[in-house]
Here is the input.
Amino acid sequence: MDIAHRMQCPPDFPAVGAVAALSSLIGARAVVQPKARDDWQVVPNLWGLIVGRPGVMKSPALGESLKPLHRLQAHELELWRAAHDAWAIDAKLTELQGADNEKKAKGLASKDPAAARALLQPMDAPEEPDARRYIVNDATVEKLGELLQANTWGTLSYRDELYGLLTGMDKQGQEGSRAFYLQSYDGNQGYTFDRIGRGTVHIDRVCLAMIGGIQPGRIQEYVRGAVSGGSADDGLLQRFGLTVWPDVTAEFRHIDQWPDTPAKQTAWDVFERLAALQPASDTEPHIWRFDAAAQALFVEWLVPFETEIRGDELHPAMVSHLAKYRKLIPALALVFALIDTPDSGGVIGETELMRALAWGDYLRSHANRLYSAAVMPETAGAASLLKKIKAGALGAEFTPRLAAQKCWAGLNTPDAVRKAADVLADYDWLRRDVQSSGDSMGRGRPSERYQVNPAALAIGAA
Here is the structure.
């Protein structure tokens, strides 16, 4: 809340950024088994998406949330440089020793072939150290695969603007990239690249958390493609369970105060503790489970939830989104447990699960906004158009072409304006007048105008 208060932005922005970042530190090192006896496991790598128009502090808020990760990355690079310098010296010594052995073997080749053969045996070269990657900003899928090969327990992909990533994967020839990202959400599946030139690259575990921002108009455009059976209709968007699209208040207060140092230090301590988290072994994670009370609460939530998404009342796109809550809710509970009760012996309590369920309810309201804006774009456009009318931006009457020339988000074509205006006309905010071309031969298209109900202008003036 301190970040949101000082920046005067919705608290959703830094909160989602922090949770996604913390989930990346856990990665696949710890998993939760939501059922008491079943071996179904959930990896808590989460995907977050914050929606807001330009200028509402999306990027600065995320930047503040990710500062601990950047500090961890800077410290890791310092350690890596020192280790790499030492490795370079050891590698050079190995090379010199090999050259010396080769020189000695040359002199023994005719006298003592066995000794010469022993000297020419390959020497154990020191392994080049890898730096842990806490955060990746912009990488091709192939490069990301190489990074995950060295960071098998997971990392975070941060994109300031996710639209480029989403639409880039819609292009022809990027089907492999989509498959890679889709699999990386599971967090516990292997992946193999077979490329001419690069050869075969196998990744034991593809585990990727993700966070980024996007503008309302662009996400609406993308969602429409995702719900209409296009190439984006493969569940990629639905994996962004931590999607928030909050209202931004018009009121602004100038805040100039020092950060809340105790709260900031507490948050940084959590980041550092989770960064030091180790798996149970080189190949196995720690397994967390619900205690008896939390297990009962989980079943109490799960049964009606499954019944709802198996019914016919929800839009298919919303069903696909909510289906990912099977992972989201247990994953959030595990993240909260590792933050607040790390010494509970691998047991998640009722308090942590209740917090996860509360987050789920809140996030669902944002998902409703996300999909309704795309499934019923005329409704969203009507709300936007009404706001402009009340502000007096179109006067007492207008044509769809005139309004489209304003290039407002969601209203940048005459057809989009027409559909939105027709919705307002149904509710008596507007009256649609169609005038013939006036040609005696009936040629030419009729023109249409929308007259504004004076009550709308009066409300705007008030």
